[in-house]
Amino acid sequence: MHPHPRDHRSTLDGGHAAGLSPEHDACGVGFVATLSGRPDPTLLAVGLEALRRLRHRGGVAADGRTGDGAGVMTEIPRRLLARELASRGVRLPAEDDFALAACFFPTAPEAERRAQRLLEEACRQQGLAVLAWRPVPVDLDALGPIAAASRPALWHAVIVRGPRVAPGLAFDRALYLARRAFERRAAAFVQREGRDGAPAAGPAPAGLRKPYIASMSSRTVVYKGLVMAGDLDRFYRDLRDPDFATRFVIFHQRYSTNTTPTWERAQPFRLLGHNGEINTLQGNVNGIAAREPWLRVPDWPELAPAAVAPVIDPEGSDSAMLDNVLELLVLAGRDPLHALLMLVPEAWEKVADLPPALRDFYRFHACLTEPWDGPAALIFSDGRWVGARLDRNGLRPLRYTVLKSGLVVAASEAGVLDAEPADVEEHGKLGPGQMIAVDLATGRFLRDGEVKAEVAARRPYGQWVRQIVRYPDEPGAEDAAPASGGRDLEPDPPAMAPPVHARRAGRPGSQAPTDGRRRIRAPAPSPPPRSPRWPPSAGPGRS
Q1: Is 138:107 a contact under the CB 8 Å cutoff?
Q2: Catalytic positions, please?
């Protein structure tokens, strides 16, 4: 299924074809989810149809058949995978004991085998093992010439945890460290030399491309590529399999504005899909890089700067960079609701009727990280939660519908799902800084106020913020001293270093801020200040 001819436009020069209106020049993104708590074999078809109805939002290459990128994120299709492995005499382990990696490897045979060996070795070092390699079934006729020329070899790696790796969060963390070790070794995978011995310029040939892992999780899997939205399930045969059951589908149709389309830059990424831009990107990247020397999480001793730095992949798009940071914060102990409220806050400072607990939440996290500002419409999932978030600008539309049957759909536009009015429980749209979420485990649908009230109540942010922050308009702000030197922050202290400018503002004798914003106080002389830690941990387990 191809878009209308007027949508056959090239995005390589960033321009607009004649007669096209600017409102088409944005990605299409959304999700469908069931509140039943059970994987549904019909849900994937609903998500793919919603994706097809957003195809007019995607860019198309000069060949008229290669898209800027389209993809879906779903739960791992356990029934399908078990059937496939059983045909080869391999038994799929219990749900908590295996993960699935979606791999983009070089197509040259020797390079392909080498990439597999690298991933197997990286897994062994983390107490994991690759149980089986599965070539992903595809139909090459669904690709345009440009996409076909750069197509990677597509593999699924079924990974099992060893006896020293616990299920749940510990398994997720081991998978992350294994993937990052693989990525570091893969960085030199296609190092080519020019005539002068220096690295050769330009992209590597498709047969020697740098390996890339689209997803590597015990709960979710990503199918994506340089395909048209209507051709995604033609290309990936899994997506037409009747045994493919899932509780949610995140879908994304890309319109590339700032980066050249590639297979790797298609979305969704490992946790999110994004429509928009990150206009504070350079400052955000610099802020994360400045904190990397202090990477530490109390209950994750294996995490170290050398193991994961740089946190942000410099070759990724702005969306991919936000995904990099979100992933690490979730693995540090926060769920994606908490992490996105922290990274993409609303415009809270001048809202007079903001609930006090939520204001304390934002005040506390303002000391830990700078906002990632859009315009941005974000769809996210870690396999437990799925939801949507709009940044403080609110310039990318997101509408949602809840049906009486328990189906929830959110998307960049209305009309991605046909529903009779009598079947609709609720229609809504997200405003600036708002969020909705579905708890896949319990079947709850949370509206914006419910999400924020629940997250803000998890920790004593008011107590913490009063110990480290003073505002000039608060009584006693000029000469108040900390009551305990930070000791009351135990056992769950703020573990991310404040921005450098804020720490300087709090030193004894430093110039007080004059812009009416927060004042960061100097630590008490006794006990000595603790070493700053990044990323923040939410204590044992997930918050």
Answers
A1: no
A2: 27
pLDDT of 183 > 50? The answer is yes
Q: What residues does 274 pair with on adjacent strands?
A: 378
Helix (H) or strand (E) holding 518: none
Distance CA 394, CA 384 (A): 26
Residues 6+ apart with CB under 8 A from 499: 287, 367, 369, 370
pTM: 0.83
Q: How far is CA 263 from the centre of its chain?
A: 17
| Cβ neighbours of residue 321 closer than 8 Å, sequence gap 6 or more | 278, 281, 284, 285, 312, 313
What are the φ/ψ torsions at residue 174 (nearest 5 degrees)? Answer: -65, -40
Sheet-wide strand order for 128-135: 128-135, 153-161, 98-105, 212-217
Residue ranges of the domains in the chain?
A: 1-75+230-274+393-445, 77-218, 278-373+459-543
Determine contact, residues 258/317, Cβ cutoff 8 Å.
yes
What are the CA-CA distances from residue 541 to residues 162, 324, 337, 514 (Å)? Answer: 20, 20, 15, 40
Residue 469 dihedral angles phi and psi, to the nearest 5°: -130, 135
pLDDT in tens, 509-524: 333 333 333 433 333 3
In the three-class reduction of DSSP (H, G, I as helix; E, B as strand; rest coil), residue 468 is classed as helix
User: What is 325-353 written as a DSSP string?
Assistant: HHHHHHHTT--HHHHHHHHS--S-TT-TT
Considering only CA atoms, which of 483, 484, 457, 467 is closest in space to residue 519? 467
Helix, coil or strand: residue 440? coil
- What is the SS3 assignment for 280? coil
Q: What is the pLDDT of residue 190?
A: 60
pLDDT at 58: 81
Distance CA 238, CA 84 (A): 11
Q: What is the CATH number of domain 77-218?
A: 3.30.70
Peptide bond into 535 cis (omega under 30): yes
Of the pLDDT bands very low, low, confident and very high (cuts 50, 70, 90), residue 67 is: confident
Exposed (0-12), middle (13-18) or buried (19+): which is 271, by Cβ within 10 Å?
Answer: buried
Report how far residue 441's alpha carbon sits from residue 79's, in angstroms, rounded to the nearest whole number: 19
Based on its alpha-carbon atoms, the radius of gyration of the chain, rounded to whole angstroms, reads: 24
Handedness of CA 263, 269, 273, 275 (dihedral sign): negative
The reported pLDDT for the residue numbered 259 is 75
Give the model's pLDDT for residue 472.
65
CA distances from 408 to 27, 46, 135, 218 (A): 20, 11, 33, 24
Give per-residue pLDDT as tens, 400-429: 999 999 999 999 998 999 999 999 999 999
Topology, domain 1-75+230-274+393-445 = Glutamine Phosphoribosylpyrophosphate, subunit 1, domain 1 (3.60.20)
- Domain 1-75+230-274+393-445 and domain 77-218, same fold? Reply is no
Position with higher pLDDT, 273 vs 207: 273
**Would you give the DSSP letter of residue 178?**
H
Residue 344 pLDDT exceeds 60: yes
The SS3 assignment for 366 reads helix
**95-104, 345-354, 513-522: the lowest-pLDDT one:** 513-522
Residue with tokens 């930070």: 486
